[in-house]
Design goal:
With 169 residues, the chain is of the alpha/beta class. It contains six helices and six strands. The chain has a six-stranded parallel sheet with strand order 3-2-1-4-5-6, sandwiched between helices. Helix 4 links the parallel strand 5 and strand 6. 36% of the residues are buried.
Amino acid sequence: VLAGPDVVALRAGLPSWSPLPERRVAVMLGGGRVEPRLRTALAEVARRLPEMRFCGVGRWIPRSWTLIGSQDPWPELARCSLLICGSGTSGWEASAVGVPVVIMRVAKNQDLVFDRLRTRGAPGVDALGTRSVDGIASAVLAALPKAVPLPPLTDGSERVACKLRDLAL
């Protein structure tokens, strides 16, 4: 079993965090489908923070937000003040980019990464464990000031390839 942060495969060419002067909050929750209560909660967060601009990846984002393309979102995400992201690949990639994050658990298969990223310092919002729209919005609002960059993570693809080669010999 190859597991842990040393063997996470990351996409090539991830930029380094370099925020714009304006306060921008990005949201990337993976997949393409974000359940209605979560969409409503995040729209409420943006409504309560009129001094911040919100942007996001996915067709689900509110019309008042700036849409970031899903093919290569990281150049735009790296220019944001902070990122609210799901507890999957985007969480690991955020660690490599260095953007301050709030991690959200939005699917059951994210349990291990959610726990791991929180132990690495990211504030977490369990959107599965919090059923109400107001509960999710309140948890996100409480987590945003605590957003921090995760410890740096580097691509583990080569380590995995070398280990597999060694095992095959």
